[in-house]
Amino acid sequence: MTIAIIGGTGPQGQGLALRFAIAGVPVALGSREGARAADIAAELTARLPDGAAVITGHDNVAAIRAADEMVILAVPFAAHEATLRALKPHLAGKVLVDIVVPLSPGDPKKVSMPPEGSATEAAQALLGDDIPVVGALHNVSARTLGTLDQPINCDILVCGNDLEARRKTMALIRRLGVEAYNAGDAQAARCIEAITPILIRINISKEVPFSHAGIRIWAPEH
């Protein structure tokens, strides 16, 4: 099953491409410039161990066409609406996994939600009900994804209005060796996306002895 990553030439998109390829999932990397995506795909391929799935580079539309069903959106929030408007005609029959967080311009320690309540809800409103949008992978740092000799150090919260699309997304994410939890409908993204600036604040604080931390859901010990 080939997946597409739109905005795949950015740090988080590259990290996801590497992780999925290592997990055996072929990746079509998408960018506005197909040649740049092809160059990045070649660089990422050089980092892959033997036996990994292939990473290829394309323009955004070609990447979507190469995907069997799952399309991950990993662009900056400033490009979120314009990218979705441009790609909407090509997303029929796909599931859009939106990992975008609306961080405040100039201050990533704060969030600036769109009128819809979250980036996930904004994407669903723009695309319409026929294209299911799932919010996921908001709270994983690009540095963590790109550090391939270490496991991903967090759980993943997944939300969206289409239950079957949520389940497909959770199954895909679990291939990365992490746990994914069903967090409910798209409105839950208001809470999930807002966790990211809190993590950024903690991770850059001089009062803690670590960086690039994530979140985990812990079961009771009794």
Instruction: Tell me the number of helical segments per DSSP (H or I, 4 or more residues long).
Output: 8
Amino-to-carboxy terminus distance: 40 Å
Strand neighbour order, sheet with most strands: 3-2-1-4-5-8-9-10
Q: What kind of oligomer do you see?
A: single chain
Give the C-alpha Rg.
Answer: 16 Å
Low-confidence stretches: none
Number of domains: 1
Name of the CATH superfamily: NAD(P)-binding Rossmann-like Domain
The CATH topology assignment is Rossmann fold
Q: Helicity level, as a percent range?
A: 25-40%
The count of DSSP E runs of length 2 or more, i.e. the number of strands, is 10
Query: How much beta, percentage-wise?
Result: 15-25%
Largest sheet: 8 strands, mixed
Question: How do the SSEs run, as a string of H and E?
Answer: EHEHEHEHEEEHEHEHEH
Net shape:
globular
Structural class: alpha/beta
Please give a quick description of this structure:
This protein has eight helices and ten strands. It has helices spanning 11-22, 34-45, 60-66, 80-87, 119-127, 142-146, 163-174, 189-204; strands spanning 3-6, 27-31, 55-59, 70-73, 95-98, 103-104, 107-111, 133-135, 156-160, 180-182. The protein is globular and about 45 Å long.
Fill in the keyword field for this structure.
222 residues; alpha/beta; Rossmann fold; two-stranded antiparallel sheet; 10 strands
Architecture overview:
The chain is of the alpha/beta class. The chain has one domain (3-205): 3-Layer(aba) Sandwich (Rossmann fold), CATH 3.40.50. The chain is 36% helix and 18% strand. An 8-stranded mixed β-sheet has the order 3-2-1-4-5-8-9-10, with helices on both faces. Strands 6-7 form a two-stranded antiparallel ribbon. Helix 4 (80-87) links the parallel strand 4 and strand 5. Helix 4 (80-87) runs parallel beside helix 5. The longest helix is centred in the C-terminal third of the chain and has 16 residues, at 189-204. It is globular. Keywords: Oxidoreductase. It holds the Pfam family F420_oxidored. Residues 2-102 form the Pyrroline-5-carboxylate reductase catalytic N-terminal domain.
